[in-house]
Design a protein that fits this description.
This protein is an alpha/beta fold and 288 residues long. The protein contains nine helices and ten strands. Bound molecules: zinc ion (ZN).
């Protein structure tokens, strides 16, 4: 027998055409290969298995807000480096790199918007900016979100996605926990509702302060929500943790959160909750 010629005429490896980067992506849930465009159109939810992948802040606006419009508050607030912190790289350089890659000044956006016609004070963490960590600016913006909502008698809808306090700001970042919760208490005394939406992941100082203090705490399916990481807890209590520990479904079963809501139903669900919780015009706010 004769071997066929391996090299066929006219085939040139340099001319090999391949699809551009990012045309397809693999689902983290079922491993299926899905066109990126399809995933985008579906707000990063897998049509096969329902896996919720991370959704960027602009897409959350498109999903939840009327016309995708947010009238932003305090976008000018930018982080500083009062401790001159360095951990291999200076904090200042880390900020610049995060601002460049995320095209945002900080890890949260806040403002006034409408959801199904209802005016709301809206905030959303940008996980892409230093893991959505809470430094002085994030804490200040959340405080202002609650304070403005109190002044303007708006309900607050806040989307959480954070690795916790920002270690590069040391104690200043931990102080944000108390500051934000104090502002939230003033909102509560005014009888205005706070709907906390817990996305994957909501951990550390954010989970340990305002994130789990919503009048209603909603979580996305399979989101990781907790204070310390599972490994740290296992090492501390010397016990093996149960299956699904710190995931939305586990937390719902143990009374830590109120509802698990998929992305498709999220807008309607929040609008309905706000409708039920918002005191009607003219009615006296409830005393706390
Ligand atoms: Zn899938």
């Amino acid at each position: 027998m004769t071997w066929p010629h391996k090299k066929s005429a006219g085939l040139d490896a340099t001319q090999k055409r391949s699809l551009g980067k990012g045309v397809f992506r693999r689902c983290d849930g079922c491993g299926d290969t899905v066109p990126t465009e399809t995933m985008h159109a579906n707000f990063e939810v897998c049509a096969h298995c329902g896996q919720h992948h991370k959704l960027a802040a602009p897409r959350w606006r498109d999903l939840l807000l009327d016309d995708g419009r947010l009238e932003e508050w305090d976008a000018h607030l930018a982080p500083s480096d009062p401790l001159h912190f360095t951990d291999g790289k200076s904090y200042g350089d880390r900020i610049l790199a995060a601002q460049k890659s995320s095209r945002a000044t900080e890890a949260i956006e806040i403002g006034r918007a409408r959801m199904s016609g209802t005016p709301v004070a809206y905030g959303a963490f940008l996980f892409a900016f230093m893991g959505g960590s809470m430094g002085s600016v994030v804490g200040e913006k959340i405080t202002r979100l609650f304070e403005r909502a109190t002044d303007e008698r708006l309900p607050v809808v806040l989307l959480q996605a954070s690795g916790g306090a920002r270690m590069q700001e040391g104690i200043l970042s931990l102080m944000q926990m108390a500051k934000t919760v104090a502002a939230l208490e003033r909102l509560r005394s005014a009888g205005l509702p706070f709907v906390s939406v817990l996305l994957h992941p909501t951990t550390g100082g954010v989970a340990a302060s305002f994130a789990l203090l919503g009048d209603v705490n909603i979580a996305e399916p399979k989101a990781l929500i907790g204070f310390a990481g599972a490994r740290v807890i296992e090492q501390t209590i010397r016990q093996t943790l149960p299956e699904g520990f710190q995931r939305s479904e586990f937390l719902l079963a143990h009374g830590m959160i109120d509802r698990i809501v998929g992305r498709r139903e999220m807008k309607q669900e929040i609008a309905q909750l706000v409708g039920h919780l918002m005191p009607s015009v003219g009615r006296e706010p409830r005393s706390s």
